[in-house]
Amino acid sequence: MHIFCAAFPFALLIPVCCSAATSQMWEEWKTQHNRGYSNQTEAALRRAIWEKNLLLVLTHNQEASAGKHSFVMGLNHLADMTAEEINERLNGLKLEEPLRFRNGTFNDAASLSIPESVDWRERGLVGPVRNQGSCGSCWAFSSLGALEGQMKKKTGVLITLSPQNLVDCSIPDRNFGCNGGFITKSYSYIIRNRGVDSESFYPYEHQNGKCRYSDKGKAAYCSDLHILPQGDEAALQAAVASVGPIAVAVNAMLSSFQLYKGGLYNVPDCNPVLINHAVLVVGYGTDGGQDYWLVKNSWGTDWGEGGFIRMARNKKNLCGIATLGVYPIL
Ligand SMILES: *[C@@H]1O[C@H](CO)[C@@H](O)[C@H](O)[C@H]1NC(C)=O
Ligand SMILES: *[C@@H]1O[C@H](CO)[C@@H](O)[C@H](O)[C@H]1NC(C)=O
């Protein structure tokens, strides 16, 4: 899409210089993302935000082609929302408790020979990319992603699990449904409940609902959880290599993350303390001399590299990728 106006000498001036072209892009974007607005005021507001994001994306991508950035941005389905709105609606990770409870070191770290790169997708431990919609349920997708991997390792079958089950039923464990939750408390619920249903039995509705768990749909369980040492990327690497996909939290507050399109996400000012979004580390590797984490998001396949992002690794815990790593123990 950034090619659209590239023939103009001053691409940065697009909203001023070629509003007809911008209008056409806006119409195309709305069609592509099936967007309609309830009234003129709302439509004008959304277009203004979208144009701001357009400018941001064009500027960034121009800098990227000049070699200033290792990733590009794009006008995905979130492009008519402000960063604040996305943080409020989608990034519902709660934090206070996990920071108090840590299981300390990843014990096997020293004794393992750790491979240079890992991609659990190749080993069938990673299910299809999901879309949480306008519901702060990232914590449910993230925690279930790690559990799906452990179940596949144990049973040989990869079954997509039900985030709706967690959204509706883990309120007593002090999760807040679409208003946010904890990775650790997802597992507390599954341990207490002695199971969690499959997605096919208990489908996702992207809104809060009444708890409808049934043993009939049970597709996974766990008996304990392990919290990795805070901020330790070596321990996270060892855990990813030997355990499988690990539920983590990241700072997803920046527009560069929200409108990430592809490449190696490396934003030095991405604060590792301000983590607000739960995702799943499914591997790691090195590209062009830069180490990266391979991360699965729950914002659909339109976002990033088919729903995944490669985030800089061994860059002082960039975006807090190793601030809160958790996995379930069957
Ligand atoms: C326009 O739509 C928005 C979003 O649905 C709503 O909040 C607002 O009240 C509406 N304004 C008018 C004038 O109808
Ligand atoms: C890790 O810590 C959590 C939270 O305190 C606890 O529930 C869990 O049993 C611990 N797991 C292990 C393996 O020590």
Automatic annotation (TrEMBL):
Gene3D superfamilies assigned to the protein according to its UniProt record, in alphabetical order: Cysteine proteinases
Stretches assigned to the Cathepsin propeptide inhibitor domain: 26-86
Keyword rRNA-binding: no
Annotated signal peptide: 1-20
Assigned keywords, A-Z: Disulfide bond, Hydrolase, Protease, Signal, Thiol protease, Zymogen
Domain Peptidase C1A papain C-terminal: from-to ranges: 114-329
GO MF assignments: cysteine-type peptidase activity
SUPFAM superfamilies with a match to the protein in the record: Cysteine proteinases
A biological process from GO: proteolysis
Similarity remark: Belongs to the peptidase C1 family.
Protein name per Swiss-Prot or TrEMBL: Cathepsin S, ortholog 1
